[in-house]
Automatic annotation (TrEMBL), chain A:
Keyword Transmembrane helix appears in the UniProt entry: yes
Keyword Oxidoreductase among record annotations: no
Domain of life of the native organism: Bacteria
Identification of the protein by name: Carbohydrate ABC transporter permease
SUPFAM superfamilies per the UniProt record, alphabetical: MetI-like (SSF161098)
Organism: Cohnella herbarum
Coiled coil (UniProt feature): none
Transmembrane segments: 9-30, 73-95, 107-125, 137-159, 180-205, 238-258
TrEMBL record, chain B:
CDD domains documented for this protein: TM_PBP2
Protein name: Sugar ABC transporter permease
Keyword hit for Protein biosynthesis: no
Highest taxon of the lineage: Bacteria
A Gene Ontology BP annotation from the UniProt entry: transmembrane transport
Chain ranges of the ABC transmembrane type-1 domain: 68-282
Organism classification: Bacteria, Bacillati, Bacillota, Bacilli, Bacillales
Gene3D superfamilies: MetI-like
PROSITE patterns attached to this UniProt entry: ABC_TM1
Length: 274, 294
């Protein structure tokens, strides 16, 4: 074994306990979903004394997890599509037609970049109820559309790298403003679109504050809200609650597996640009 | 004529974002500012201007004071811990060892699920009874009796910080990793020819070149930390007492639950100013540091 090989092997050994500690919470909830309540309370750490699978059946029977999953999916898909479209649309005139008005628009949008959602919470709550957007899935989708400001900045940063000659040539060929955007600009934005979609998807899928405030009826719960409500219901039945948690982690885990490369690239791109 | 039409078409592209942003971000902020000087209760159409009264009340309200101090403590402690852990973690994950990809995935994954979910998982680990997972481990290893991890004021604060740090360190390590990989390898070769050992290389090459990454990472940690809500809310419900109340939670309590819109709006304005001041200060200071290091 060469010297450098040996050093790397030591890293494997050194990192093993750190990795186990980092993963431990997930191991713990997974094994406890296969236990009875008593078993989980007495020996939370060890493997089940008898493996049971009834918790999984029970979760699907006793909670509306599938409906909540559908609600989360609906809200996320529509909100993310609209956010990305609106953000890209806004960036287009600002980058390719730097008139006085688009310069004003950039400054105006930049000014609000630091405003935390929480600072606008009270009037927002009033506004949502005045507009009759409370307890409606589309109300939440409309609210989330304010995320397009973040996408606007990602997109306009990226758009500046697209040569202006491309759009100028299209103008000479008689392409309309909308046609240039749709056929030339949008396809070139693919990498930054993927980054935007990932960040917005994670934010909306995981959000708790807005659904808690703006969705009341249980038929409209998102998945995270369902977990929150179940916590109150299953206070003593930890295995059942953990089963619900594990099931909700499955789509997130799949998203992570398929998107890992893009997520990492997105963080790098966002950071280097920022 | 055609030029005018083109301009008008371009304007249409900006319209949706400007409408949404004005309606859901700027208008509520301006209104919060306006409401903060009134005694509006959310229902009655009649309300009075009370001047600075709400702002004065903020500093006499124990829950609000507690929320501000906890949020600031949480923010800085978490930012410090994550930075101290993420930089070495990134350096290790940059080496080519066999389980590297597995370890990258393990550390990174906790940043993907909702904070609420993660906090509930930890709620099981930190359960105060002797049967709580962490207490069972302590009993087995060191024979220490059960500790009230989430019920003691100081322990509850520290627990929320530990959980938040566990969740986000891997994410920030990936950010540092991206910068590490952009450092040319010849720098290290040149340094080792000049006789610099590994520690000196880290001190004089790696850390200075990571300065821009630190600016971004710490900015994200601070702005994210000030907005904290889910992890303490799910772990401790803000308790014991008001000890782990976040600013967000106190705005919701005073504003939406108790319909003291004026007071909560004043709190929102103060919150916005805190975020703005800290973020501007931090980025200015750290960018100056970047320049002095290069």
């Amino acid at each position: 074994m060469t010297k450098s090989n040996k050093r790397l092997w030591i890293l494997d050994v050194l990192m093993l306990p750190a990795g186990i500690i980092a993963f431990f919470p997930f191991y713990l909830i997974i094994i406890n979903t296969f236990k009875t309540m008593q078993d989980a309370a007495k020996k939370p750490l060890s493997l089940p004394s008898k493996w049971i699978f009834t918790n999984y059946v029970q979760v699907f029977e006793e909670t509306s997890i599938l409906r909540s999953f559908g609600n989360s999916l609906t809200i996320t898909i529509f909100a993310v599509l609209l956010i990305v479209l609106i953000g890209a649309m806004g960036a287009y005139p600002v980058v390719f037609n730097m008139g006085r008005f688009s310069r004003f628009a950039t400054i105006y949008l930049l000014a609000g970049f630091m405003i935390p959602f929480q600072a606008t919470l009270i009037p927002l709550f009033q506004l949502m109820s005045d507009l009759h957007l409370i307890d409606k899935l589309y109300g939440l989708i409309i609210l989330y559309m304010s995320g397009s400001v973040f996408v606007f900045f990602l997109m306009s940063g990226y758009m500046k790298t697209i040569p202006r000659e491309l759009s100028e040539a299209a103008v000479i060929d008689g392409c309309s403003v909308w046609g240039i955007f749709w056929r030339i600009i949008l396809p070139l934005l693919k990498p930054i679109t993927i980054t935007s979609v990932i960040f917005q998807t994670m934010w909306i899928w995981n959000d708790f504050l807005a659904p808690m405030l703006f969705l009341n009826s249980s038929s409209k719960s998102t998945l995270v809200l369902e977990i929150y409500k179940a916590k109150g219901e299953f206070t003593v039945n930890w295995p059942m609650f953990m089963t619900l948690t594990v099931i909700t982690l499955v789509p997130i885990f799949l998203f992570f597996i398929f998107m890992q490369k893009h997520i990492v690239k997105g963080i790098a791109a966002g950071a280097v640009k920022g | 004529m055609t030029k005018f039409v083109r301009q008008l078409q371009f304007l249409l592209f900006l319209l949706p974002i400007l409408v949404i942003y004005s309606l859901f971000t700027i208008f509520p902020l301006v209104k919060a500012f306006f409401l903060s000087f009134t005694n509006f209760n959310g229902y009655s159409k009649v309300f009075d201007f009370v001047g600075m009264k709400n702002y004065v009340r903020i500093f006499a309200d124990d829950a609000i004071i507690s929320a501000i101090s906890y949020t600031l403590f949480f923010t800085f402690a978490k930012a410090l811990l994550v930075t101290v852990l993420a930089i070495p973690l990134a350096m290790i994950l940059d080496q080519k060892f066999f389980t590297r990809n597995l370890h990258r995935a393990i550390f990174f994954f906790p940043s993907i699920p909702s904070g609420l979910l993660l906090a509930y998982i930890w709620g099981f680990i930190l359960a105060p009874m002797g049967s709580g997972v962490f207490n069972t481990i302590l009993k087995g290893l060191f024979n220490i009796g059960p500790q009230p991890w989430l019920a003691d004021p100081l322990l509850a604060k520290l627990s929320t910080i530990v959980v938040a740090t566990w969740a986000i360190t891997g994410w920030h390590a990936v950010l540092y990793l991206a910068f590490l990989q952009s450092i040319p390898k010849d720098y290290y070769e040149a340094a080792s020819i000049d006789g610099a050992n590994r520690l000196q290389q880290i001190r004089f090459i790696t850390l200075p070149l990571l300065a821009p990454a630190m600016t971004i990472s710490i900015m994200l940690l601070i702005t994210g930390g000030l907005k904290v809500f889910e992890i303490p809310f799910a772990l401790t419900k803000g308790g014991p007492g008001f000890e782990t109340y976040s600013i967000t939670q106190v705005i919701m309590l005073r504003g939406i639950s108790e319909t003291q819109y004026g007071l909560a709006s004043a709190m929102s304005v103060v919150f916005f100013l805190i975020v703005l001041a800290i973020a501007v200060f931090q980025v200015t200071v750290m960018q100056r540091r970047e320049q002095s290091m290069q």
